[in-house]
Amino acid sequence: MITVKVGLRPIASKINLPTVLKTAIxxxxxxxxxxxxxxxxxxxxxxxxxxxxxxxxxxxILKLGDSGGGYDERGLLxxxxxxxxxxxxxxxxxxxxxxxxxxxALSESFNPNPCDPETLNLRWMDRETQYDHIDTIExxxxxxxxxxxxxxxxxxxxxxxxxxxxxxxxxxxxxxxKLVLTTxxxxxxxxPFNLSQDDLEIAGKIIEMDVDKNTYIINPPIATRFNELxxxxxxxxxxxxxxxxxxxxxxxxxxxxxxxxxAGNVGQDLVESIFSFVHYxxxxxxxxxxxxxxxxxxxxxxxxxxxxRGWEGDFPASIIRGCTNNGTLDEKTIAYYNEAAALSAxxxxxxxxxxxxxxxxxxxxxxxxxxxxxxxxxxxxxLTGSVxxxxxxxxxxxxxxxxxxxxxxxxxxxxxxxxxxxxxDYDFGSQSAYYVNLxxxxxxxxxxxxxxxxxxxxxxxxxxxxxxVP
Length: 470
Known about the structure:
The protein has five helices and 31 strands. The two termini are 18 Å apart. It has helices at 85-88, 117-120, 231-234, 285-293, 337-343, and strands at residues 4-15, 18-25, 32-38, 42-47, 50-56, 76-81, 90-96, 133-142, 148-159, 170-172, 179-182, 205-209, 222-223, 237-242, 250-255, 258-265, 271-277, 283-284, 304-305, 311-312, 315-316, 318-323, 326-334, 352-355, 369-375, 386-391, 404-408, 420-424, 434-440, 447-452, 463-469. A hairpin with a 5-residue loop joins strand 8 and strand 9 (148-159).
């Protein structure tokens, strides 16, 4: 793969953690505008090189950064504009709701022990009291004679832990016209309750939502499983994929008369993975619920399964410990051997992966995948037709943290491919630069990068949004 060099052009600065970067054409406008959603609940857009407020829902967001020293994975996580937004003004939000904090689903940290079956077969009990918070997915409308206003709630999701809620979690499919919701596995680590592989659990899935079908339910019940939802809501949902750990959204790339779908899966201890697929067989949620009621197995042939928690990318999920007699070595133990074996033939293999430790001179040691975007522009010829991804922080970049940009391409034979690091020329000086998000415009001819100077959501105004340029 060729070496690609790019520049970073700042287009917005001194903002809070940018979780979503999207473009849309406002009703009555003539140009695409870049919208920036921050984790704390602000949504801005850029017009005439200035930052303007589109919506501020900070009072609706739960208090962030109370635990973990200011680090948090909750907040405003998703923003998507309806394909007919210019005409109907509809857009969609996913956020962690204020006043919904709970004690969490487990009283202590979780580590699977392959020799202790109890740790491998935990169940999420007392869900109405043992949870961390509630996420909500809402439909809003930009009124012709005023500002944005909430229309209805699509889902209320009870989450077991504070992390792995998905991010950049709402995207419209150009293939089906449906809203695609990507949910993380519920958090902690190692998916303690194996929610990602349970067909009825909402956690750890990619879900299509038919938002044009009115359920006439303004405020749905709080749910964790599909069979807890009213039938009218179930009928709007189809399951697109499962086996997701945590996911920075989904990207669609037009290829002749079909679309390549790209989705990343954030790793546990070993590897970060980017998946791709063209054909998939979505399963109506009503069919899954009915199969469960009849105690039968649904037809899963052709269904997409990323393999988590049995597989971390292309490797059986492992527990990694330092070796006591040699600090430079690690001991790796397969955490869920039986699950890895059962999924070995049916899981989707990654298009490419990168490791948390990698000493090769042309690679990097990653921390967490934070963005995956197809690029169809011609301004950066080396990237045309590729999929670009970004990592939060290169392991070798201490003490001044630097994120990483890289790309890969689909091979004609469908086999896995290597990746290549994208070199950047921007000087961040003594400031840390965590790469927290990647965005694009409607035609995928431009790329935007969100950078933050800290990983604490309580450290304010340290964000910059760049356009990636030749």
